[in-house]
Design goal:
The complex is a heterotrimer. By secondary structure, chain B is α/β, with parallel strands linked by helices. Chain B has five helices and five strands, in the order βαβαβαβααβ. Chain C has 19 helices and two strands. In chain C, about 65% of the residues are buried. The chains are: A mainly alpha, B alpha/beta, C mainly alpha.
Chain lengths: ~170, ~130, ~500
C-alpha cells in the first residue's frame, strides 16, 4: 500500500485519465443501451457517433495514463492574476464553492435578491476582502440592480422568493 | 530611538517623509519607513515603484540616517502595518501624512490616520502637504 | 446584390441610434475587459449571452463584435504597461511594448498599438467584406460530405495545432463531443446520456456550458492561485507619436495586417502565429535591429496590427461557413444558435441584413475604439486598481445570473458548478478549453452532416469521399495529423534548426 501511494504521489493527473476513461465507458454503455431498428433513411443511427466518441475518450485516457506514468505533465494555465508559485489555495476555493452551493439552495426558495447577496458577499469574503459592511452593501445593491434590470430591461422575472410582494 | 513613518507616493506621504527625516536627525534616531499594500488589486497606486524607493534610499543615506525600509504585502491595511512596525521597533514617534478634506470627506474617509492616532502607544505626528 | 450596396445598407442599419448605442456599449465593455486582468472577450460574451433573450439579434451581434474588437485593443494596454499579456495573442506585444514603457516611451507604444490596431482592423474588415461573399459563393455549392470534412478539419486543426500537448487537446475535444451528445437525438428522438433525467432531455444549454467553462472554471482557478501582490505599473500619459515613430510604424502595420488576416481566417490559424511571424519579420527588416529587445517600436506596431487583422480574419469562416476558429467566435456562434439562426453559408442569404449590419458595425467600432483609446488611455489604466475579490466575485455572480436566466431553474446551476469544476481541473492539468467548446458546438452539427452524407449514399462509407473538395480536405487532415512525425524526422536530420513557433502558445510569463 505504501509503495503504491508513493508511486501515485504527485501523479494526481492520473485522476484525469481515470475521469476520461470513466466518461468513455459511460458514453459507450449509454449508447449500447439504445434500441434502434436499422433504418434505411438513417443508416448511421444514433449509436455510431457515441461509439466513436467513447473510443476516443478511452484511447485518450490510456495514452494520458501512459504519458503521466512516464513523467509527462500538463502545464497549468497561467494568467495575469495567477501566481503559480504557491500551491492551490483550498482555503479560498472551498468557501467560494460553498457560497455558490448556498446560492443554488436558496435561489428558488428565498429568491434571487437574497441568494445573490449571499453569493456575492460570500465570494468577496472568501477571496479575502475584509470590509464586511461595504461588501455587504455592494452585494445588496448588485442583487437589487440585477433583479430590476433583468425584469425591466430583459423581461426576465427572477424569483422574488421570500421578498415576494415587497419587491 | 526610532521614528516610524507611513509612506505613500503622494504629496502627503512626501511631507510625512520629510518631517520624519527632520525628526530622525534631531534625535539621531533610526528611521523605519513603511510602504505597504494589501495586494488586492493588480495595480496599487499607494505602493511605491522600485525607482522611488531607490531614490528615497539614496536620500536617506545621503543624510547619514540609519534607516530600514519595509514593504509588507500581507493583506493587512496600512494602519495595521504602521502600528505593527511601531510596536515591533519600539517606536518613539510615528509620522503620518494627512490629506486636507472637506467636511463631508471627513465623515467618510480618513480611517487609516484615525486608527493610527487612536491606537498608537507612542506620540503621533501628523503633517499636511504644503499648499 | 453587390458587396458595396449591401454594405451601405449595413451602415444604414448599424447607424440607427439604438444599434449605434450598442456598438458604443460593446467597445467600451470590450476595452474594459481587455484591460481588466482575468476577463477576456470570450468570457464576457458568454456572460452576456442572456441579453439574446431580449435584444434584437442585430443589436446583440453589434455589441458582441464591439466586445471582441475592444478586447483586442484593451489587451495591448496591459501588455505594455504591466507586462502581463492577458491573451496569448498579446504575448509578443508585451516583449517590446513593456521595454518601451520602461524606457519612458509608454505613450508612443500605446499610440502605435492603438493606431496600428485601427489600421489593421479597418483593412481586415474590408477584406472580410470582400472575401466572405466569395467564400459563400464557393461554399453553397458544397454538399454534406464536404461540410462534414470541413468541420472535422476545423476541430482537428484547433485540437492538434494549438496548445502544447496534442494528447491533452484530444482529451478535451472528446469531453466536449460527449457533452454535445447529451439530450434527444434529432433524427430518432432517442435520449442519449440523459440518465432518465427529464431536465437533460433538451441537452445542455450552450450558454450554461460556455459560462461554466469560461467564467466559473476560470474564476475558481484564479481564486486557487490568486496573486496577492501588486504588479509594477508604468505611469501613463496621453498616447502620442512623433514623426519618426510614424515613419517606423506604418510599414509594420501593413505587414502585420498581411500576416494576421489569412492566419485568422484559417482554422486553427489563430492570432499567436501571425503576431510571432510579424515580430520576427520586423526584427529582420528593421533599420534598428539593435533596439529589438530594448523597446523597438516596430516590435509593437507589427504584432498589434497582426492580432487585430487576425480578429477580422476569424470572422470570415465564422460568418461564411459557420466555423468558429477561436473562443470568442465560438461563443458568438452559440449566440446564433440561441436565436435559432442556422450558421453556415446560408447565413448571408437568410440573414443578409444582419450580417452586413454586423460588418458595417465593425468599421464603426474600429473608429470608436481609436477615439476612446487614444485620449482615454490613462483612465483605462485606472481600472487596474479594482480589487481582485470584487472582480472574481463579480464574475461568479454574473455567471450564476446568466446560467440561471436561461431556464429559471436551479438545476442549471448544479450543471454550472459541475462543469465549472471540470473547467478548473482542465486548467490545473493543462487541458486546453477551446477544443471542448468547439466539440460541444460543432459535435451535433458534424453528426448531422455525417448522417446526411450516409443517407445520400445509402449507407455506403464511400459516400464520404463523393466530393473532390472532401477528398482534398482529408489529405490536409492527414498532413496535420502526421506533421509532428514528419517534423521529428526533419529535425533529426537538421538538429540545429530552431522551431519558429513558441513552444508554449499559452499566455507565457515574460515578467522579469
Amino acid at each position: 500500500m505504501t509503495s503504491l501511494t508513493t508511486g501515485l504521489k504527485g501523479r494526481s493527473e492520473l485522476g484525469v485519465a481515470l475521469l476520461l476513461g470513466a466518461a468513455g465507458v459511460l458514453v459507450f454503455l449509454d449508447a449500447n443501451g439504445l434500441v434502434t431498428p436499422y433504418s434505411k433513411s438513417d443508416p448511421v443511427g444514433p449509436k455510431t457517433v457515441p461509439f466513436i466518441v467513447a473510443g476516443m475518450l478511452v484511447v485518450c485516457a490510456v495514452l494520458l495514463a501512459v504519458n503521466v506514468l512516464r513523467g509527462g505533465k500538463g502545464e497549468a494555465e497561467g494568467g495575469e492574476d495567477v501566481d503559480l508559485t504557491h500551491p492551490a489555495d483550498w482555503k479560498t476555493v472551498l468557501p467560494l464553492a460553498g457560497a455558490f452551493i448556498l446560492n443554488i439552495l436558496l435561489i428558488d426558495w428565498a429568491g434571487w435578491v437574497i441568494s445573490g447577496t449571499v453569493l456575492f458577499w460570500g465570494s468577496v469574503l472568501a477571496l479575502g476582502s475584509r470590509r464586511y459592511v461595504r461588501d455587504g452593501l455592494i452585494s445588496v445593491a448588485l442583487s437589487l440592480l440585477t433583479f430590476y434590470g433583468f425584469y425591466l430591461g430583459l423581461g426576465i422575472a427572477l424569483p422574488a422568493g421570500l421578498l415576494e410582494g415587497i419587491l | 530611538m526610532t521614528v516610524v513613518v507611513g509612506y505613500v507616493p503622494t504629496p502627503e506621504g512626501e511631507a510625512a517623509l520629510t518631517q520624519a527625516i527632520t525628526e530622525a536627525r534631531k534625535a539621531n534616531s533610526t528611521l523605519v519607513l513603511i510602504n505597504s499594500s494589501k495586494g488586492e488589486a493588480a495595480v496599487d497606486s499607494r505602493f511605491a515603484q522600485e525607482g522611488d524607493i531607490q531614490d528615497i534610499e539614496q536620500r536617506l543615506a545621503g543624510q547619514g540616517i540609519e534607516y530600514l525600509i519595509k514593504r509588507p504585502v500581507r493583506g493587512h491595511d496600512a494602519a495595521a502595518e504602521v502600528l505593527d512596525a511601531a510596536e515591533e521597533h519600539n517606536a518613539d514617534l510615528i509620522v503620518i501624512g494627512l490629506r486636507r478634506r472637506t467636511p463631508v470627506g471627513k465623515l467618510i474617509m480618513g480611517s487609516t490616520s484615525q486608527r493610527i492616532l487612536l491606537e498608537a502607544d507612542c506620540p503621533v505626528l501628523a503633517v499636511k502637504a504644503g499648499r | 446584390m453587390d458587396v458595396w450596396s449591401s454594405l451601405m445598407d449595413g451602415f444604414a442599419t448599424a447607424l440607427t441610434p439604438m444599434n449605434f448605442l450598442y456598438a458604443v456599449i460593446g467597445v467600451v465593455l470590450g476595452t474594459a475587459v481587455g484591460v481588466l486582468p482575468g476577463l477576456g472577450p470570450a468570457m464576457t460574451v458568454a456572460l452576456l449571452l442572456p441579453v439574446t433573450y431580449a435584444l434584437e439579434p442585430t443589436s446583440a451581434f453589434i455589441m458582441f463584435a464591439g466586445i471582441y474588437y475592444g478586447g483586442m485593443y484593451g489587451g495591448s494596454t496591459t501588455s505594455i504597461l504591466l507586462n502581463t499579456p492577458g491573451e496569448s495573442s498579446s504575448v509578443v506585444t508585451a516583449i517590446e511594448g513593456n521595454k518601451m514603457a520602461k524606457a519612458g516611451r509608454a505613450a508612443q507604444a500605446l499610440a502605435t498599438a492603438a493606431i496600428g490596431s485601427f489600421v489593421a482592423g479597418t483593412i481586415g474588415t474590408a477584406l472580410l467584406a470582400v472575401c466572405a461573399p466569395i467564400v459563400v459563393k464557393f461554399a453553397v455549392s458544397l454538399g454534406a460530405p464536404s461540410y462534414f470534412a470541413i468541420m472535422v478539419l476545423a476541430l482537428l486543426a484547433v485540437t492538434a495545432v494549438l496548445g502544447s500537448s496534442r494528447l491533452r487537446g484530444f482529451a478535451s475535444l472528446g469531453l466536449g463531443l460527449a457533452i454535445g451528445l447529451v439530450g434527444m437525438d434529432s433524427v430518432t428522438g432517442q435520449r442519449r446520456l440523459t440518465f432518465g433525467q427529464p431536465l437533460l432531455a433538451d441537452g445542455l444549454d450552450i450558454v450554461v456550458v460556455a459560462v461554466a467553462i469560461f467564467a466559473v472554471g476560470e474564476a475558481l482557478w484564479v481564486a486557487a492561485h490568486l496573486r496577492r501582490t501588486p504588479l509594477h505599473a508604468i505611469p501613463v500619459g496621453q498616447p502620442w507619436m512623433g514623426k519618426s515613430d510614424w515613419k517606423r510604424s506604418w510599414k509594420p502595420w501593413l505587414r502585420g495586417t498581411a500576416f494576421g488576416f489569412p492566419f485568422g481566417a484559417l482554422p486553427a490559424g489563430g492570432a499567436e502565429i501571425p503576431t510571432f511571424l510579424s515580430y520576427v519579420t520586423e526584427k529582420r527588416l528593421s533599420k534598428h535591429p539593435e533596439e529589438f529587445g530594448k523597446g523597438a517600436i516596430e516590435g509593437v506596431a507589427g504584432p498589434e496590427a497582426a492580432n487585430n487583422a487576425a480578429a477580422a480574419g476569424t470572422l470570415t469562416p465564422m460568418l461564411a461557413l459557420g466555423l468558429p476558429t477561436n473562443a470568442t467566435a465560438a461563443v458568438m456562434l452559440a449566440a446564433f444558435t440561441s436565436y435559432g439562426i442556422q450558421p453556415g453559408p446560408q447565413l448571408f442569404e437568410s440573414q443578409g441584413a444582419l450580417v452586413w449590419a454586423l460588418i458595417a458595425s465593425l468599421f464603426i467600432g474600429n473608429l470608436l475604439l481609436l477615439l476612446i483609446n487614444l485620449p482615454l488611455a490613462p483612465m483605462w489604466a485606472k481600472l487596474l486598481q479594482l480589487p481582485r475579490p470584487y472582480l472574481y466575485a463579480g464574475i461568479l455572480f454574473f455567471a450564476t445570473l446568466g446560467a440561471y436566466s436561461v431556464n429559471l431553474q436551479a438545476f442549471d446551476l448544479v450543471i454550472l458548478l459541475v462543469l465549472g469544476a471540470l473547467g478548473f481541473m482542465m486548467r490545473r492539468f493543462g487541458l486546453p478549453v477551446l477544443p471542448l467548446i468547439l466539440g460541444v458546438i460543432l459535435g451535433p452539427r458534424i453528426e448531422g452532416q455525417l448522417r446526411k452524407t450516409l443517407q445520400l449514399s445509402a449507407g455506403d462509407p464511400a459516400g464520404l469521399l463523393s466530393e473532390p473538395i472532401a477528398v482534398g480536405i482529408y489529405v490536409i487532415i492527414g498532413i496535420i495529423l502526421l506533421w509532428p512525425f514528419a517534423y521529428k524526422l526533419f529535425r533529426r536530420n537538421r538538429p540545429a534548426h530552431k522551431p519558429l513557433v513558441p513552444a508554449n502558445s499559452g499566455a507565457a510569463d515574460y515578467s522579469d
